[in-house]
Amino acid sequence: MERVLRRRRDLLEALRDNPSPKPEIVDRTAVSRSTVDRGITELVDRGCVRKVDSQFRLTETGRLALEARLEYERAIDQIQTAGPLLAEIDLESLSLEFLRGATVNVADPRRPWKVLDQSSALVDEATTMYGTGPAVFRKFYDDIDRSVENHGLTCELVIDEAVFESLDSAQREELRELLRRAEGTLLRTELTDSFAIWILEYADREYAGITVYSSGGFSGVIYNDAPNAVSWARTQYRKRKASAELLWDFR
């Protein structure tokens, strides 16, 4: 059936909401009558289409097969779009559930910081943030600080222990003051990810995302508000938190 679905997807789509006789199928698909004849015969043989009076219509088999085919194609397209980011992370780091329907922003090497604009805007509106910090940048401080000022953001962060040790006293004090104002929590552990995981909560929705790093800075950002994607991110965050040591707690 897979081969037939690949070859005859357009016919299934044409019949999805419009049971039709063959001449109308030809008009809507802009293919030859002979191609429609062969395609309909193949689909009837596999139980995807049936003829009722003079019209051809999808069966439940055909409807579900088309849905599965379109979902497969969307997933493949999403994987291809995210390819530059996936190349930067370890095998088996992400779930397809997280990628389905996600927004994928790939960094422009000439202006890599611009790729953070959309995720920064999401942080601005959030009321609660959970995140990992395998790296810390100036913009990281600024985004959280702005959201604390604007919406009273509270946050819980799990930072890489090597990154924390690399901060000088002034940077640590700035981070401590930021978390104090955010009524936040800081934990540390060894993080081997090449990406940060973050979950943002709002009054009426949630977002989850990853920010992918590379040797040149940022590779890009993937984020999603689908419940399955948020659930995946929470599970990954909790795994990293489970091994972490509490440093500061201002709750």
From TrEMBL:
Pfam families: FilR1_middle, HVO_A0261_N. Residues 6-77 form the HVO-A0261-like N-terminal domain. Residues 112-241 form the Methanogenesis regulatory protein FilR1 middle domain. InterPro entries: FilR1_middle_dom, HVO_A0261-like_N, WH-like_DNA-bd_sf, WH_DNA-bd_sf. Coiled coil: none annotated. SUPFAM superfamilies: Winged helix' DNA-binding domain. It comes from the Archaea. This is Predicted transcriptional regulator, contains HTH domain. It comes from Halostagnicola kamekurae.
